[in-house]
Amino acid sequence: MKGVFVVGAGPAGMFAARQLALAGYETFIFNRDIRPGGLAQYGIYPVKTKMKTGLRKQFAQTLALPNVHYFGNVQIGAAYDLSLADLETMRPAAIVFACGAQGAKKLGLPGEDAKGIYAAKDFVYHYNQLELFSQMDFSTGRHAAIVGVGNVAIDIARWLLLDDPAHTTESVTILARRGPLEVKFDRKEIEYVESHLSREELAAELERVKDRCAQAGQDVSPEKVFPEHFPHLNSPDFASIPPRLSIRFLSSPKAFETDSTGRVCRVVIAENELVLKANGSTSARVTGAASTLDVDTVLFAIGDKHDPQIGLPMGPDGYATSPNPGTPDEPSYEVWDPTAGKTYPGRFVVGWARKASTGLAGVARHDGELGAKKALDYLATATDSGTCTAGEIVARLKARGLRVIQKDDLALLARAEEAAGPIQQPNSFHFIDKPAILKAIDEEAAAPQAAARTVARAD
Ligand SMILES: Cc1cc2nc3c(=O)[nH]c(=O)nc-3n(C[C@H](O)[C@H](O)[C@H](O)COP(=O)(O)OP(=O)(O)OC[C@H]3O[C@@H](n4cnc5c(N)ncnc54)[C@H](O)[C@@H]3O)c2cc1C
Fold first, then answer.
1. Pocket lining: 364 vs ligand 1, CB cutoff 6 Å
2. Pairing state of beta strands 264-276 and 171-175?
3. Strand partners for 266
4. Cα dihedral angle (199, 201, 207, 209), rounded to 10 degrees?
5. Measured on CA atoms in the order 183, 186, 188, 189, is the torsion positive or negative?
6. Measuring CA to CA, which of 193, 197, 218, 378 is 20 to 30 A from 83?
7. Residue 160 · residue 169 · CB < 8 Å
8. Alpha carbon distance 427, 306 (integer Å)
9. Whose CA is nearest to atom 14 of ligand 1?
10. Ligand 1 atom nearest residue 121's Cα
11. Using DSSP, how many helices (H) and how many strands (E) does the chain show?
12. Distance 129 CA to ligand 1 centre (A)
C-alpha cells in the first residue's frame, strides 16, 4: 500500500489530507492536539462563530472519508512521542508536514523572561482553551503593552478590552516599531476596538512622530491616517469609551524591569527613526532616545517561528524547502536538506510550517492543497512502500504507551459535549484539559447507550 502521512490537523493539514484521500490514498493524520483544527480552533478569535463553525464542518467532512485515519494526541518530534525516524519505520509513501509554527519569536531583550510577559500564540491558545495552555498562568493585570501591530495584536487587545472575563484591564498600549502608515491590521479588525482609542490622543501621537515620518517622505496627518486605517475616528458621533487603547509609533521595547515578585512592571521603550529604503519600503532604526511605560503585562505579537524539535531541517521562513524557487503561485514544497544539498523525496511542507504567520486560514488551505498536489504528482510514480495499515500503526502507538485518539473517540467526545448541554464561552467546550477530555471519552464509551452506537475501530 502507498499510504500518506499528514503531520498536523490545522487547515493546511486537513485540506491536504482531503485532497490525498479523494485521490484514493489511505491518509493518516497525526496531530499533537486531541481535537483537529489547529489555530482554526484554538487561534481564531472565540466569537468568530461563523468562520469557526464553517471550518469545523469542513474538517468533519474530511474525517468522515473512510480512507482518512486520525491519530490525535500524538506529537511528532525527536523530543516528543514519535521521532521522524519512528514515522519512517511505518513506511509512508509520502509525508506532508503541516505542523504550523509552534515556537515564538523572541527579541533577546533584558528581562524578557519575566512573569507577565507572554508570546501571543500561547496567550491565544490560553483564551481559546487549548488543553495544557488553558491551565497555565496567563494572568493579566491593569496595564498591558502589546508589541506588534498586526491582526493578532488587535485580537489580543480586543480580548483584554472587551471579552476577558477577568475584566481587569484599564489600558492597552500597542507598541509599533514603524509608523502609522505601516500598521498591519485590517480595517475590519480595528473596528472592534476603535472606540477605545481617543481621537485627541491619537492625533497627538501622529504629531509626535510626524517629523520622523516626513524624513521617509510620509504624510501622517490625521486627515491622511484616520480615513485610511481608523474608519470611525472621523465620524461626528465617535465617542471614546474605557478601557483605553493607545498606539505608540516608532517605538520598540528595549528592556523590561520587574517588581519584587518578579513580574514585569515597566518597559523601557527605544524611540526609532523611519528609514526609507532603496526599494521604497521602510525600516525602523533605533535612536538614542528612550522612555518608559508602567505595565504589568506584555504580549509579543511579532510572529511565530518553527519548532526545531520536530527534526526537520530549518530554513529562513519555516522548515527548509527546496531552493528551486518555483513561482509565487506555486512555490517549492519539498523538504530540503541544506547540509547534504538534496531534497527528501516524497516529503513535503505546507501551510505555516512552510511559511510562518503568513495569511489567513484560506491561505493555509490553499497551500495545503497545492502541497498535496505536489505529493500526488510524486505518488503517481513512486514505488509501493508497503505502508503499515491503520491497525498496525495503532498497535505500534499503543505499544509505546500512547493514548491515541481516533475518529470514534472524537465521536464519543462530541456526544459527551452534547450531553453536557450548552457551553459558556462560544466555540469552546465543556471538556478542555487533557485529563477531562480523556475521562469524558472513557465515560461515554462505558455508558450503556454507547454500546449501541459503536463505531468500527481501525484496530
Ligand atoms: C491569533 C490568531 C488569530 C487568527 N485569526 C484568523 C482569522 O480570524 N481568520 C483567518 O482566516 N485566519 C486567522 N488566523 C490564521 C489561521 O489560523 C492560520 O492561517 C492557519 O491556522 C494556519 O494553518 P496551519 O494548518 O498551517 O497551522 P496550524 O493551524 O497552526 O495547525 C498546526 C497543527 O499541527 C499540529 N502540530 C503542531 N506540532 C505538531 C507535532 N509536533 N506533531 C503533530 N502535530 C503537531 C497542531 O496541533 C495543529 O493541529 C489567525 C491566526 C492566529 C495566530
1. yes
2. unpaired
3. 257, 294
4. -120
5. negative
6. 378
7. yes
8. 27
9. 360
10. 53
11. 15, 16
12. 14
> Which atom of ligand 1 is found nearest the CA of 74?
43
Q: What is the pTM of this model?
A: 0.95
pLDDT at 330 over 90: no
Pocket probe for ligand 1: among 14, 28, 44, 80, the residue whose CB has the most ligand atoms within 8 Å is 44
Please measure the distance between the N-terminal and C-terminal CA atoms of the chain and give it in whole angstroms: 17
Nearest of 286, 291, 289, 370 to residue 11 by alpha carbon = 370
Adjacent-strand bridge partners of 348? 96, 334
- 338, 316 in Cβ contact below 8 A? no
Cβ(42)–Cβ(62) under 8 Å? no
Helix (H, G, I), strand (E, B) or coil at 104: strand
CA of 27 to the centre of ligand 1 (A): 20
DSSP code per residue over 264-316? EEEEEEEEEEEEE-TTS-EEEEEEEEEEEEE-SEEEE-S-EE--GGG-PPB-S
Q: Which amino acid is at 229?
A: H
Q: Which residues contact 346 (CB under 8 A, 6 or more apart)?
A: 92, 93, 94, 95, 375, 378, 379, 382
The answer to whether the CB of 209 is under 6 A from ligand 1 is no
Give dist(CA 106, CA 119) in Å, integer. 8
Q: Which of 47, 90, 44, 42 is nearest to 69 (CA)?
A: 90
Q: Is residue 179 helix, strand or coil? A: coil
CA dihedral 398, 404, 406, 412 (to 10 degrees): 110
Average pLDDT, the chain: 94
Element (H, E) at 174: strand 171-175
Residue with cell 508602567: 294
Beta-carbon contacts of residue 319 (< 8 Å; ≥ 6 apart): 97, 306, 310, 312, 313, 335, 349, 353, 354
What is the band of 236 on the pLDDT scale with cuts at 50, 70, 90?
Answer: confident
Grid cell listed for 51: 468562520
Confidence of residue 321 (pLDDT cuts 50, 70, 90): very high
Residue 456 — very low, low, confident or very high, per pLDDT cuts 50/70/90? very low
Residue count of the chain: 459
More confident residue, 12 or 105: 12
Cis peptide preceding 325, ω within 30 of 0: no
Alpha carbon nearest to ligand 1 atom 53, residue: 43
Buried-state track 154-185, b at ≥16 Cβ within 10 A, e below 16: bbbbbbbbeeeeeebbebbbbbbbbbbbbbeb
